[in-house]
Amino acid sequence: MVDETYDNAACRQRLVAGAIEMGLDLDARQQTLMIEFLALLVKWNSAYNLTAVREPLEMVGRHLLDSLALLPHLKPGPCLDMGTGAGVPGIPLAIMRPDSDFVLLDSNSKKIRFVRQAKLELGLVNVQPVHARVEQYQADRPFKTLIARAFTALPNMFALSAGLHQPGVEILAMKGSIPEQEIVQLPAHVTTDVIPLRVPFEAGERCLVRIGQVAGFHAK
Fold this sequence. Notes:
There is one protein chain. This protein is α/β, with parallel strands linked by helices. 37% of the residues lie in helices and 19% in strands. The protein has a 7-stranded mixed sheet with strand order 3-2-1-4-5-7-6, with helices on one face. Helix 1 (8-21) runs parallel beside helix 3, helix 2 crosses helix 3 and helix 2 (28-48) packs antiparallel against helix 4 (90-96). The longest helix is centred in the first third of the chain and has 21 residues, at 28-48. It is globular, with a radius of gyration of 17 Å. It starts with 7 loop residues before the first helix and ends in a 7-residue tail after the last strand.
């Protein structure tokens, strides 16, 4: 059990209230795992500077609920979180989708150490932390979905992940305001769909850019 140095009840209350507002139902186990993940993040952040957000209640909206905004748009099946950082959105999504496997990829060794510790302490058997750069990662399976949150500009993200563009794969990129200039710089053979996101307790604009490849096109 992690050493809780913050108001557990207040964080859980905010998490549950936000999830209800989003139309999501978190059972008792999922709530507990989310709050334990948050406690680990608070504890490690003081030494490893994993996130600029320091206030636990703010982390509920910025990291947990923001991650869960992706949940209704996520296909079942193997998922790769590109540039996972401190495990978001990968760990919250893995908690909610125990029947899907999640590879959490990052080139920052200290952040991957944290993700490995979180996987161990939370008992998340469907999470595989990987220390590697996206463009150098050799996948041992095809993914249904590639996800990214605060990773890089869309054209760069698409180019870096080219080796993972198997037929039928979908890319979900979480953004702030609609990145119109980034979208128009994507290759002509992709389709894009912009979905507004509403994250409770977060005032800033959020959207999801869904990228797919035109049927019949397969990146070499």
